[in-house]
Amino acid sequence: MASLTVITGPMFGNKTTTLICLIRGNKNLSDCLVVKPSTDTRYDKYAKYQIVSHNHDSYPATIYEPGKLQDLDWRNATTIFIDEGHFFPDIVANVKKFLKANIDVVVAGIDLDYKHKPFENMRVLIEMSKTMIKCKAYCQCGEFATYTKMREDMQTDADITVGGSEKYAPCCGHKKCEKTWI
């Protein structure tokens, strides 16, 4: 029976690093499919066709447009690894399809946006998962971060804004930490 593993937590919590470790530890690498969203262009000079962690560890990946996971050629895969799952609005329906076809799925993605609002697709995947790995990041004060804050001058009305440390920082939620920037 196929299983779903979800790797989640705030930005800078080593979700992609954990995903890469699980990929490299898979005994059937030739039967794996690694996917990343086309909208994640943070490390394009390194990662035209790779998932890349904040420390620049990388692994080759297939690029897909958010909303187009149904176009994924998954028929020969035994395991599908998906990075930045929160970027894919159609991920839940497709993960269900992969699991029904007896394909194991591992998804890494952020659980809460910078407004402390859950990414609905990730919330559903966490509920569906057999295994959930909660990654932690550290706030500037040294406490565990519970979410990712966005610089006030970078905030928009968009639900998803791609960025790295120039826009985001892990935050524990204490008022003193929310008001300061690293």
Structural features:
single chain, 182 residues, alpha/beta, Rossmann fold, 6-stranded parallel beta sheet, two-stranded antiparallel sheet, 18% helix, 26% strand
Describe the structure.
This protein has 182 residues and is an alpha/beta fold. It is 18% helix and 26% strand. The chain has helices spanning 15-24, 91-100, 120-128, 175-178; strands spanning 4-9, 32-37, 50-52, 58-60, 62-64, 79-82, 104-110, 131-134, 137-138, 144-145, 147-150, 168-171. The longest helix has 10 residues, at 15-24.
CATH H-level superfamily? P-loop containing nucleotide triphosphate hydrolases
Secondary structure: number of strands: 12
Structural class: alpha/beta
Distance between the termini: 45 Å
Count of individual domains: 1
CATH topology: Rossmann fold
Q: Percent helix among the residues?
A: 10-25%
CATH level 1 class label: Alpha Beta
* SSE sequence, one letter per element: EHEEEEEHEHEEEEEH
Amount of beta strand? 25-35%
Radius of gyration: 16 Å
- Give the oligomeric state of the chains in this entry, treating copies of one chain as homo and distinct chains as hetero: single chain
